[in-house]
Write a structure and sequence with these properties.
Blueprint: E1 7-8, H1 10-17, H2 21-28, E2 38-40, E3 43-47, H3 48-57
Antiparallel strand pairs: 1-3, 2-3
Protein name: Helix-turn-helix domain-containing protein
Organism: Bradyrhizobium jicamae
Length: about 60
């Protein structure tokens, strides 16, 4: 199956957002995170445009010292 350039995996999201894959897995469990478009094997494929909008509108809940 060929992915379109606006589609990506958790690994792709992590690279685009500058976060670890572990952190993206955590964020993906939050309410409001875009649902995957489809699943290939064990990989969930997301619309990278929707994910980018999610992060642009998200306020980071973690406090920094």
């Amino acid at each position: 199956m060929t992915m379109h350039r606006h589609e990506g995996t958790i690994k792709d999201i992590a690279a685009a957002e500058g976060k670890s894959t572990q952190r993206i897995y955590q964020v993906a469990m939050e309410a409001g995170f875009p649902a995957p478009l489809y699943v290939v094997g064990k990989n969930k494929i997301y619309d990278m445009r929707q994910v980018a909008r999610y992060f642009a509108n998200r306020t980071d809940r973690r406090k920094t010292a």
